[in-house]
Amino acid sequence: MTTTDRFKALLITKGDAGQQVAWTELTLSDLMPGDVTVAVSHSTINYKDGLAISGKSPVVRRFPMIPGIDFAGTVIASENADFKPGDAVVLNGWGVGETHMGGYAGMARVKGDWLIHRPEAIGAAQSMAIGTAGYTAMLAVLALEAQGVTPDKGPVLVTGASGGVGGIAVSVLSKLGYRVMASTGRLAEADYLRELGAHDVIDRAELAGTPKALGKERWAGAIDSVGSATLANVIAQTMYGGTIAACGLAQGMDLPASVAPFILRGVTLCGIDSVMAPKTKRIVAWNRLAVDLDPAKLALLTTTHPVEAVQDLAPKILGGHIRGRVVLTI
């Protein structure tokens, strides 16, 4: 592809009739300002992308917009000293696909400060199998480690384990030697979760009831992508001195919890932000993923589709009907 070529993009527009989503042809002049231009080879779909495409939540805050909060590709032009044509790069977050045109297109123009060099051990398609979900999972693992949650302290729980964040969290934690407890609403996926490395699989219904102030101590740490009553129950059943990394809100944004676990058991709740995380933290996370994520397990939890399928996939990811991760080829 040359810089004079037109390229295909999924464009969201909004008018009197509401939000419209359609594939169209654009040129580089249609893109937003930035100091690095990337030929996009792969993207993925996250929960937030499903919301953007469906219009069910005001994720998109500028129109017209190309959705897609993740992409991988090759630099074709750069005014940023850190990047040159030919560099393999990855982008996660930074408002791309929300306020800045994103990854569901043949080309993207962004700020170089938003990009990282793709680790050599991770291919372009693999980087999108990881995507924001896997990078978020790694940030959560790093948070547990920083708080001293080591494998000898006890089990680590992963909620929403059949999803993207959960699947990669289970895989990474297992490789690092943790005993992983996986919570899922799809118990038919129990064998799959054990293949990823889970020792125990529990029904999410165990964590969905009205939370108690304190419950039986069951895990030394947890990675939660669900929020609401589930997170409150996770906190109440965390062992003395344990840590929970909270990174999602699939069940809701509320937290009907008690202060008791914090002041009686010294529990720590760590918030995980992947969208605006500083570049230094991103590089650490991606370099760890290159070492601590088994490629065979990544392949096990990944399916591949052409990017044109993303509109059909959006309602499926919102309904919890996608297992693991999706790679979109551009």
Short description:
With 330 residues, the protein is of the alpha/beta class. The protein has helices at residues 47-54, 124-146, 164-175, 190-196, 228-236, 260-264, 279-292, 295-300, 310-318; strands spanning 7-15, 18-26, 36-44, 70-78, 88-92, 107-110, 115-117, 156-158, 180-184, 200-203, 219-224, 238-246, 268-271, 302-306, 325-329. The chain contains 9 helices and 15 strands.
Major pleated sheet: 7 strands, mixed
**CATH homologous group name of the largest domain:** Medium-chain alcohol dehydrogenases, catalytic domain
Count of helical regions? 9
CATH topology of the largest domain: Quinone Oxidoreductase, Chain A, domain 1
Q: Provide the number of structural domains.
A: 2
Coarse morphology: globular
What's the end-to-end separation, in Å?
A: 12 Å
CATH architecture of the largest domain: Alpha-Beta Complex
**Proportion of strand residues:** 25-35%
- Under CATH at level 1, the class of the largest domain stands as Alpha Beta
Q: Using the CA coordinates, give the radius of gyration.
A: 20 Å
Number of strands: 15
Mean pLDDT: 96
Spans of at least 5 consecutive residues with low confidence? none
SS-based class: alpha/beta
Quaternary organisation of the protein chains: single chain
- Helical residue percent band: 25-40%
